[in-house]
Amino acid sequence: MATQDFYDILQVAPDADEEAICAAYQRLREQYDPQKLNGAAAELVELAQQRLSRIDEAYATLSDAQRRAQYDAQRQASLQDVPDYRPLPPAQHAERPRDFNPRPTINQPAAAAIAGPAAAVIAVLAIALVSIIGGLILTGGGSVPQAVPTPTTSPMDALETMIARARQIAEQNENDAQAWLDYANLLYDSVQIVREQAPNSVLYQQRLPRWLEAAKAYERVLELDPTNAVARGDLGASRCFYGAGVGDQTFVVEGLKDLETATAARPEDTRLLLNLGSCLASAQPPRTDEAIEVWQRIISIAPTGSPVANEAQRLIDQVRR
Is the dihedral of CA 136, 140, 143, 146 positive or negative? Predict the structure, then answer.
């Protein structure tokens, strides 16, 4: 996802001290509190929860000196020039100068191996989320205020527009792994939101084929970047969730292989572990004990009370009923 590094997520400079990081974390935790979205659309509540999960993950790393040093080294090594897809400046009816670059690049962290797929949609909708949460504080809750920039366009409609644009960019840059990753992540997000909020709905059944679309896009990413463990894991989750949804264990088995490979490469990636547990529970017969073991590992390594830890505990309680 359109990816962010941990400093961007916490909105602090890379040389920020421990006090600044802690203050930023507390501010963002309060800002994105889902309880302040009571009465808002379910997808916005979900986006706030996903944002909180990324905030917790970023803080867990940057507040630990050893983990931060390892992260900084990885982040520095991944700096590279990537295409800048922002509109070119107007020519003003004049010829471009000889040194004008029609294909500019920007220097930023290639954090695909660090950030998860939800980063793409969260980054674009963050301003709208903040506006909505802020409005609810001022009005004491209730309906979404008209201060949202485009009140007639729902976040889900905005996401569909982003998907179409991402697909166009990927097809125009067929050898750009990041472009395909952005496209795959948006597809993943658009169906994952529905799966988490309304897994038994007609809408989710209609969107099941999108898991295969996401899987194909992740396959392209891996053709270009075979070592991308996060893309491997999201490919596995896409296959597994599709198979579970249509009742085809062939996809579940394939997805499990990808997720096991990905989590072996990134054993502390809590989002990949969460999906691995869900996939194990979707197998026939369900591999419940293994799933619970994976989710318990999440609880042991994630910050206490964090969204991902809470979700792992919820899933454990659910399968034990």
Answer: negative
pLDDT, one tens digit per residue, over 94-116 is 444 555 454 455 444 433 333 34
Confirm if 270 and 299 have CB atoms less than 8 A apart: no
Domains of the chain: 227-321 (1.25.40.10)
Residue 56: strand, helix, or coil: helix
Phi, psi angles (nearest 5°) of residue 97: -65, 160
**CB of 141 within 8 A of CB of 38?**
yes
* Segments in the chain below pLDDT 70: 1-4, 34, 36-44, 78-157
pLDDT in the model for residue 110: 38
d(CA 175, CA 223): 9
Specify the DSSP class assigned to residue 136. H
Instruction: Name residue 37's amino acid.
Output: L
Say what the pLDDT of residue 99 is.
53
The answer to whether the beta carbons of residues 147 and 265 sit under 8 Å apart is no
Model confidence pLDDT, tens digit, residues 260-276 = 999 999 999 999 999 99
Q: pTM of the entire structure?
A: 0.57
Q: How many Å is the Cα radius of gyration of the chain?
A: 20
Cα–Cα distance between 43 and 262 in angstroms, integer?
28
Secondary structure percentages of the chain, helix, strand, coil, to 5? 70, 5, 30
Q: 135-158 as b/e, with b when 16 or more CB fall inside 10 Å? A: bbeeeeeeebeeebeeeeeebeeb
pLDDT at 165: 87
Enter the tokens of residue 225.
């970047």
